[in-house]
Amino acid sequence: MIVITAATGQLGRLVVDGLLAQLPADQIAVAVREPAKAADLAAKGIEVRHGDYTDPDSLKAAFQGADKVLLISSSEVGQRLSQHKNAIEAAQAAGVDHLVYTSLLHADTSTLNLAPEHLGTEELLATSGLTTTILRNGWYTENHEQPIKQAVESGVIIGSAGEGRLHNASRKDYAAAAVAVLTGTGHEGKVYELAGDTGWTLAELAAEVGKVSGREVRYDDLTPEAHQETLVGFGVPAEVAELYVGWDQGIKTGQLVEIGGDLSKLIGRPATPLAEVVAEILA
């Protein structure tokens, strides 16, 4: 039995779809905070279990009988480490054979403000006694969906990343990597650095949006201070704007560059090109 946490999220649903293409539904279960949101998965024959990262007892019950668990990282920045600790302890109590965790690219060296909680989780896993696989996911190209759509109207993508390159991949690529690990062999104890095959800058993203949309789109590179001020002026809460600016500074210093090719090797094909994802977003 494979149990997928956070399976009603965007990544989780793609993983479940990938598993269903290879396994009978009765070999898959999902652990979700709100089971009612997984009614469509239940209709496909998947067992839906209540599993809330803030409720250790629910996780222990959700992981019973699991050979493998995919722990998809919590979306609650600042709460992740304690929530992941609950999940790891629940996996220990349930006797899970193999836990797969979705971490962050270069979590052990990254200066991105998201890295500490992921690295802390990896450290908990290292001392847990569990058999693990770490999927260090890079940036999703879909993270840029809102700026891409807005750029078609405004003709501008703003940022403060300079000429920093992003080796992004699509959400479906990362889901396919998780499926490959969950259904394959020889992944125990491995740490995979997952990223797209070809890097690009935000200026190149703007050019691609222009090509797909048929209108001129430029990238305006701002200072971090001006970037923060502009975002707040657009109505973005100051603390959220600070996160965005921090991510761009990470891009500027190469935190999202990875040329090892782990992702394409795992999924057996090239990562989805930028042009294809932009076209899907604008379709």
UniProtKB/TrEMBL annotation:
Residue ranges of every copy of the NAD(P)-binding domain listed in the record: 7-183
Q: Which keywords accompany this UniProt record?
A: Oxidoreductase
- What EC identifiers does the entry list? 1.6.5.2
- In the UniProt record, does the keyword Transport occur? no
Give the matching InterPro entries: NAD(P)-bd_dom, NAD(P)-bd_dom_sf, NmrA-type_oxidoreductase
Gene3D superfamilies in the record, alphabetically? NAD(P)-binding Rossmann-like Domain, UDP-galactose 4-epimerase, domain 1
Q: Does the keyword Plastid apply?
A: no
Please name the Pfam families in this protein's record: NAD_binding_10
Q: Which GO terms describe its molecular function?
A: NAD(P)H dehydrogenase (quinone) activity
Q: What class of enzyme is it?
A: oxidoreductase
Q: What is this protein called?
A: SDR family oxidoreductase
Query: What is the scientific name of the source organism?
Result: Kribbella deserti
